[in-house]
Amino acid sequence: MRARELVALWLAVGLGACGDPEEATRVDLTVLVDATGLEPVTTDLGYEVTLDAARLGLGDLLFTVAGEAHTAALWRALTGALVPVAHAHPGHFQAGDVTGELRGRFVADWLDGAGAELGVATLLAGTYQSANFTFVAAGEADGLAVDDPLAGHTALLAGVATRAAETVAFTALIDTPVDRALLGAPFVLRVRAASRERLGLRLLSRDPLEGDTLFDGVDFGAADEDGDGQLLLSAAASGAAATAYTRLARTLQTHDHFDVRPTPPVD
Questions:
Q1: Cα gap 104→115, rounded to integer Å
Q2: What pLDDT score does 267 carry?
Q3: Residues 208-218: pLDDT tens digits?
Q4: How far is C-alpha 166 from the chain's CA centre?
Q5: CA 188 remoteness from chain centre
Q6: Is 4 helix (H, G, I), strand (E, B) or coil?
Q7: What is the DSSP pairing of strand 117-124 with strand 41-42?
Q8: Contact between 118 and 101 (Cβ < 8 Å)
Q9: For residue 85, what is the DSSP state?
Q10: CA 186 – CA 63 distance, rounded (Å)
Q11: Contacts of 124 (CB under 8 A, 6+ apart)
Q12: Neighbours of 66 (CB within 10 A)
């Protein structure tokens, strides 16, 4: 029996167990890079920050529901998924059981690659509240050239920070621990058999719920200790630049600055 026929059989068994056909419906939705979350922001230290580059290596984008235990159990039976329930911070959407996925490794480019498709996700019908993914170090396996600045790193953020007469052009190369996961990025959508929305993965320069920015606490002027207006933030930085790097890297690894935004299909 072919894999597709086995899936149909398992679905039929799940339907008989719970009597709700919508919960077992599989829906394929395109996931793309959505740049609408990036805008110039003014930080808590008074810097106006504008990004010129924003790229991230990520893997296994997962979509979660809450309060649909049978759907989650059926998904685990179909896929062998062993993803536990995750919990978001207060004030944000609660994560839950994984019932949708886009497996693989990807490089999201929110400026030069805005609108690019990452792939097609498969989701069971249900009410979704959040999304998870894993940070990965991007490299040649992801289509990067050996001399690509992002190669070997998880994220590259570059731009300009201005405060009064002070202007600093910065590049941040962020490294994350192996298998570091981001849990609970907001994703609100009722997925039905007829759903055709496109799912836009967004990096948010400002947290829409709490108002803090991705660069809060980063003192670009202090980190530019030689005063030349050029700043590289990386794991190898020292002094004030190391402090700035650590603050930015920690903020980037929270769900506050990511979401998945459903948009109407493009006919």
A1: 19
A2: 59
A3: 989 999 999 99
A4: 32
A5: 14
A6: helix
A7: unpaired
A8: no
A9: P
A10: 10
A11: 23, 24, 25, 26, 27, 71, 74, 75, 99, 100, 191
A12: 17
Paired sense of beta strands 117-124 and 26-34, if any: antiparallel
Q: Could you tell me how many residues make up the chain? A: 267
Residue 186 falls in which region: left (phi positive, over 0), alpha (psi -120 to 50) or beta? beta
Q: Name the residue with higher pLDDT: 96 or 190.
A: 190
Residue 56 clears pLDDT 70, i.e. is over it: yes
The residues pairing with 117 across neighbouring beta strands, listed in sequence order, are: 32
3-41 pLDDT tens trace: 333 334 344 434 444 444 444 699 999 999 999 999 999
- Measure the CA–CA gap between 184 and 221, rounded to whole angstroms: 33
3-state DSSP call for residue 105? strand
Q: Which of 69, 67, 63 is nearest to 26 (CA)?
A: 63
Q: What pLDDT sits at residue 103?
A: 97
Token pair for 48: 């106006």
Please say whether the beta carbons of 58 and 89 come within 8 A.
no
Q: What is the pTM of this model?
A: 0.82
